[in-house]
Amino acid sequence: MLVRADLNVPLDGETITDDGRIRASIPTIRNLAGRGAMVIVCAHLGRPKGTPNPKYSLAPVAKRLAELLGEPVEFASDVVGESAQAAMAGLRDGQVALLENLRFEPGEESKDDAERALFAGRLAALADLYVGDGFGAVHRKHASVYDVPRLLPHAAGGLVLAEVEVLKRLTEDPARPYAVVLGGAKVSDKLGVIANLLTKVDRLLIGGGMAYTFLKAQGYEVGKSLLQEDKLGDVRGFLDEAAARGVELVLPVDVLAAEGFAADAAHEAVDATAIPADREGLDIGPRTRELFAAKLADAKTVFWNGPMGVFEFDAFSGGTRAVAEALIASDAFTVVGGGDSAAAVRRLGLPEDGFSHISTGGGASLEYLEGKTLPGLAALEDDQVES
Ligand SMILES: Nc1ncnc2c1ncn2[C@@H]1O[C@H](COP(=O)(O)OP(=O)(O)OP(=O)(O)O)[C@@H](O)[C@H]1O
Ligand SMILES: O=C(O)[C@H](O)COP(=O)(O)O
């Protein structure tokens, strides 16, 4: 049985700094192994772009998976090669193996259908059943997510089913005001969802690395902050659209401007309209924290994706903490989505049960909320196609 999981966890060298996604994957793997299946788990880590790279090896994840399962996990040092074949051949009923990072193979993410299908065929040949349980990756039209379930009898895993159930509540008649808070660093991915979100929400709060493209689009300088120059035109369109629809688009009024990207970088709070040219915005400032908390206080539904700053550095974690605390204090239906956002909540020592739900998917949840058909979910719903 091939299980597509999302084990894309943050690493510091070989140390896993947050194992939330591995923990979230355990119940499905344990359930299947417990019922006697030979379980081959496949997953990606980071964005190695089609070539093997030890920095993105899943080896540390295999070790942690074994610890959490309390059972040995055979780790294959390739994806569909000799090591994977040997791991498959050696599996006994109830045993678990993990393949090396799917994204070491160019076929996994290829835009070319034939190339993807070829790789999918090799992956599918390792098993005779497929379980899609990698919720965080269901928005990717990748071989292991989209093509393999077309080749094998398939089912959705428990994690995917549980995530979809919660997100449905956000799409079907959410209690209003409905606010979405966006941040993080995957700016180009996430700018794409804004156009659709503007048709659904009452308030959109933008912080994190995403905010600087908005500030620049309004004509302000952002110094060395994260900037998606090629999206400035789109962002100007979002600002107009929000105004036309009466959606409140709330941007930072101040930021922590740092001398460089480092934990101990000298920094000060400056107006968002006056970021010095040699500085980099690494967190929202104190006035913005208050503003965002006020905008969240009377919301009845809140979805939050993406940290407000570089929370991995203590000095720049205050904005993320403030948003998290505002959600914890509110009586709204609150959902946090995203590997890093969930990791931030745990790293800051905040109670996970302070939120209605913490989702393992960032981009995946956002695209679901947009009302899009997600390739990985569509593939699980489709009738099986003969290979
Ligand atoms: N102002 C900023 N400048 C640079 N990086 C930032 C800034 N604000 C936040 N980040 C970084 O954004 C990263 C998280 O962004 P990402 O978009 O991946 O979040 P996520 O949606 O929770 O995760 P995923 O989409 O992977 O599930 C963190 O590592 C954080 O340091
Ligand atoms: O971290 C995530 O959001 C998922 O694991 C998907 O990763 P990706 O954005 O690199 O496709």
Automatic annotation (TrEMBL):
GO cellular component term of the entry, any: cytosol
Family of the protein in this entry: Belongs to the phosphoglycerate kinase family.
Xref: Gene3D superfamilies: Phosphoglycerate kinase, N-terminal domain
Pathway where this protein functions: Carbohydrate degradation; glycolysis; pyruvate from D-glyceraldehyde 3-phosphate: step 2/5
Tree of life domain: Bacteria
Ranges in coiled-coil conformation: none
GO molecular function, one term: ATP binding
Name listed for the protein in its UniProt record: Phosphoglycerate kinase
GO biological process, one term: glycolytic process
Subcellular location: Cytoplasm
Entry EC number(s): 2.7.2.3
Annotated binding of ATP, by residue: 190, 281, 312, 338-341
Organism of derivation: Acrocarpospora phusangensis
Catalytic reactions of this protein: (2R)-3-phosphoglycerate + ATP = (2R)-3-phospho-glyceroyl phosphate + ADP
Database matches in Pfam families: PGK
Keyword vocabulary terms for this entry: ATP-binding, Cytoplasm, Glycolysis, Kinase, Nucleotide-binding, Transferase
Subunit description: Monomer.
Binding-site list for (2R)-3-phosphoglycerate: 21, 103, 140
Residues where substrate binds: 6-8, 21, 44-47, 103, 140
